[in-house]
From TrEMBL:
TM regions (residue ranges): 7-28
Compartment(s) of residence: Cell envelope
Superkingdom to which the source organism belongs: Bacteria
Domain Cytochrome c as annotated: residue spans: 89-220, 245-376
Protein known as: Cytochrome-c peroxidase
Organism: Snuella sedimenti
């Protein structure tokens, strides 16, 4: 046997064994030590990084003033003040937290369980399902463009995203956690400790993760969910071929003093961010939801709810606080059926003065629906993490993403 053959006889098995060993090691899943990529150093689409490492919102609406009458909502009206200025790292950390079920009391529910990106950051249910299958009383609102909102929850009881998220996080019916348990869990994970240190570099070294750190990161992510590039937006910015004839007819009905939709759903955010008493029916004969009457301690707001944005409304059926209308056609039909027609006989609600009897035709209602669908834009959809710092699979709409691949 030649020297060359002898060398090959020993080298080839060694190479094969080494390759097999590498494959076996790669296949082993070691808990709590799985690699998590570094946080993103770039801002999400729709934001520009400044020299302070802050992501600042950028959009064409910034070129407009607010001189147009906000009750009418002209096409070139400026947006409200935006929550921006978070770092790319804080936004990306918030993305991980948003999809991570460890934020719940038993590790089975994430923020995305009720705010599914594929369902307009809602959940497709009439009323959401919370901790241990608890049936909640209201539907899950969309999170698109919450960076511009002033009130949160259907009844408007929170004034900031940080305040809002504490509701579901520490509700026994929703995510079933406590502040103490949340802090203990997240501070026990080395991956999260590393990422929080990266996202909050000005904190004292080795300082534990705080509740405010968690709130800030989730707020940063939610405030990055921007939807301002729909067919309607392109039309509003001057490209009039963006909408077809029927959609333009629908827009004109929407903005008319007959339908009066734009007086509450004011462009470009498509909400005036106020509480309105509409008198919508409750499902299955349930008692009237008092809505904003409770947090504001104001009987004139009985049955009142925050006017939602109509951005991506096509994706967030069913509609209203109770999810009582399955389609957009049913929803717009409610507004033409007569002022207070669905109010229980034993209730004396202060129906919003914009609600009357426009007597729109079936054709006009169809055109309204056509227009509402032009408000759909998911071009800045964030990516669902493939791996979480907790080494769990992302939970969306109460489903483990690893189990449904």
């Amino acid at each position: 046997m030649s020297k060359k053959s002898t060398i090959l006889k020993w080298v080839i098995p060694v190479i094969l064994m080494s390759t097999l060993l590498i494959i076996l090691v790669a296949a082993i899943k070691v808990p709590h030590t799985q690699y998590v990529p570094q946080l993103n150093c770039d801002c999400p689409p729709g934001f520009k990084l400044n020299d302070k490492n802050e992501c600042i919102a950028q959009n064409l609406y910034m070129a407009y003033s607010t001189n147009n009458d906000p009750g009418v909502g002209g096409l070139k009206t400026a947006l409200p003040k935006v929550r921006d200025g978070f770092s790319p790292q804080q936004i990306d950390l918030g993305r991980y937290l948003f999809f991570d079920p460890i934020l719940s009391g038993d590790g089975t529910i994430s923020c995305a369980s009720c705010h599914d990106p594929k369902k307009g950051f809602s959940d497709g249910l009439a009323t959401s399902i919370g901790f241990k299958g608890h049936q909640l009383k209201r539907s899950a609102p969309s999170l698109w463009n919450v960076a511009y909102f002033k009130l949160f929850f259907w009844d408007g009881r929170a004034n900031s995203l940080e305040e809002q998220m504490q509701g579901p996080l520490f509700s026994k019916e929703e995510m079933g956690n406590t502040p103490e348990k949340l802090l203990k869990t997240i501070n026990s994970l080395n991956n999260y400790k590393h990422l929080f240190a990266e996202a909050f570099p000005n904190k004292v070294k080795e300082a534990p993760i705080s509740l405010n750190d968690i709130y800030t990161a989730i707020t940063a992510f939610e405030a990055s969910l921007i939807s301002l590039n729909s067919k309607y937006d392109r039309y509003a910015h001057g490209y009039h071929q963006a909408l077809n004839k029927q959609e333009i007819e629908g827009m004109n009905i929407f903005r008319s003093f007959v339908a009066r939709c734009a007086e509450c759903h004011t462009p470009p955010l498509f909400t005036n961010q106020q509480i309105a008493v509409l008198g919508t029916p409750e499902p299955n004969g349930l008692a009237l939801d008092p809505g904003a009457e409770i947090p504001f301690n104001d009987s004139t707001l009985r049955g009142g709810f925050k006017v939602p944005s109509l951005r991506n409304i096509e994706k967030t059926a069913p509609y209203m606080h109770s999810g009582n209308f399955a389609t957009l056609k049913e929803t717009v039909q409610f507004y033409t059926d007569g002022r207070g027609h669905a109010v229980p006989k034993d209730e004396n609600l202060r129906i919003h003065w914009h609600i009357w009897e426009p007597k729109l035709t079936d054709y006009e209602l169809d055109r309204l629906v056509d227009f509402l669908k032009t408000l759909t834009d998911e071009s800045f959809m964030p990516k669902v993490p493939k791996v979480l710092p907790s080494n769990q699979a992302a939970f969306i709409n109460n489903q483990n993403q690893e189990s449904i691949k």
